[in-house]
Amino acid sequence: MKIWPGRYDIDDVWDIVHKPENDDKRFELLDGQLVEFPLCGGLHGLIASELLFGLANTNKRDSAGIVTARSGYHPPDDRWTVLGPSAAFTRKERVQYPLAKRYAARMPDIAVEVASFCNPYDWVREKLPKYLHNGTQLVWVGLSERIGVEVCKLDEDGEIQTEFISADGSLSGEDVLPGFRLELSALFS
User: Fold this and answer.
1) Could you point out which of 22, 24, 56, 166 has its C-alpha 20 to 30 Å from the C-alpha of 70?
2) What is the C-alpha separation between 35 and 171, in angstroms, rounded?
3) DSSP 93
4) What is the pTM assigned to this prediction?
């Protein structure tokens, strides 16, 4: 993870990611701080893709909204933050049409993050308030080191609460995507 010096906004990030020398790089912006990440490893990719496919399959069956992968989202009134979850789900009543050609000016209902060397857990934890205080109902954090998924959401007082679900448990879409259920043994076998 490399922190770029200076302060950036969403337009700066858009310009940077479209330069040929940055084709194989991934960037996120949090409160004006631009961070560059290396490509991720196989286990990271497996966890992210299984969660993405689970969301996509449930969404296809239930026509509940849209599912995206590695797309940029920013809070509507915040030009200093762009987050790129590994996967995301947005309920159809919250989808803004036409779909943004640039970064979506809203946060998804469910965001999937995978913590690994290319997306350190401390960085994921820093992003949680931006997601959860700007419309995201659930953040699922895949934890290959702990062999499970951390489910993050706001409690009734607006505080972030987390629950760890181990590999022998199952992940639910709760009331955000009621038809979603994934046995975590599929991720961590």
Assistant:
1) 166
2) 30
3) G
4) 0.93
